[in-house]
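Worked example 3 (structure in, sequence out).
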């Protein structure tokens, strides 16, 4: 199957899936369930690409398994965080702002997630269509970046989950582990994850002049997390609920882990 046909198939499947989730949230009133579905489905898109592509089998296997594991881990984490609980404050805020038009605008918002997913899926699409295997050094680099990102994000998620599970920490700011060095270490490692596939597209038989397009997924993810739905919305809510969060923002790096500054 050609890359264009594979992308068209993925696009159609995502539209059907996301519309179904939108219909589901009409009853559940929990739009936050789109988050785990997004992670699971994007991992599934990578598996689809790897299955239908006619590129190097080794690269298809690496990209497909790597994205599948990423999507499964993140999807399970987000499912546990959202299922059976009150709607995430981000979506509740949107619903309140949209008022009577909330259902229609939520559908458009979900369909926008389809477009974003397709842009991010470039990270998987280009490598699985390369015609020759990448050099061993590039594979090693891709593996190192991937393992670092998955392990780092999983560790950050676990540290925050354990912090919140302790009743003594109610209303407090998490500075445990990686959260001492970054206000959003999970977002940092999520951005790193999208760099892992770039080495798989480099070199003879790779993406050629299209290799530059591999920069789109990490740049897009960083922009979304830093400027749109990640840091701004999370920190606005945290600043309201946690008295020490303003000081945390002054002393701690927003994204890239770094030594904290002294409190003023």
């Amino acid at each position: 199957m050609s890359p264009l046909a594979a992308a068209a198939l993925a696009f159609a499947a995502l539209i059907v899936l996301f519309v179904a989730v939108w219909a589901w949230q009409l009853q559940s009133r929990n739009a936050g369930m789109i988050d785990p579905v997004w992670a699971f489905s994007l991992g599934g898109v990578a598996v689809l690409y790897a299955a239908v592509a006619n590129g190097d089998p080794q690269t298809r296997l690496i990209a497909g398994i790597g994205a599948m594991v990423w999507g499964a881990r993140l999807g399970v984490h987000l499912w546990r965080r959202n299922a059976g609980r009150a709607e995430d404050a981000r979506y509740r805020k949107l619903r309140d702002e949209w008022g009577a038009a909330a259902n229609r605008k939520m559908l458009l918002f979900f369909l926008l997630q389809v477009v974003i997913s397709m842009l991010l899926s470039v990270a998987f699409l280009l490598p699985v269509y390369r015609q020759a295997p990448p050099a061993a050094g590039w594979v090693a680099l891709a593996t190192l970046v991937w393992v670092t990102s998955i392990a780092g994000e999983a560790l950050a998620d676990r540290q925050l989950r354990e912090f919140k599970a302790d009743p003594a920490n109610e209303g407090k700011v998490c500075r445990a582990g990686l959260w001492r060095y970054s206000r959003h270490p999970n977002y940092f490692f999520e951005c790193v994850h999208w760099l892992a596939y770039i080495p798989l597209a480099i070199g003879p038989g790779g993406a050629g002049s299209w290799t530059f397009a591999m920069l789109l997924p990490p740049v897009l993810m960083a922009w979304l997390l830093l400027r749109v739905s990640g840091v701004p919305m999370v920190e606005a809510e945290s600043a309201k609920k946690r008295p020490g969060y303003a000081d945390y923002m002054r002393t701690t790096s927003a994204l890239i882990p770094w030594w904290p500054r002294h409190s003023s």
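Notes: The mean pLDDT is 94. Residues 3-251 form one domain.
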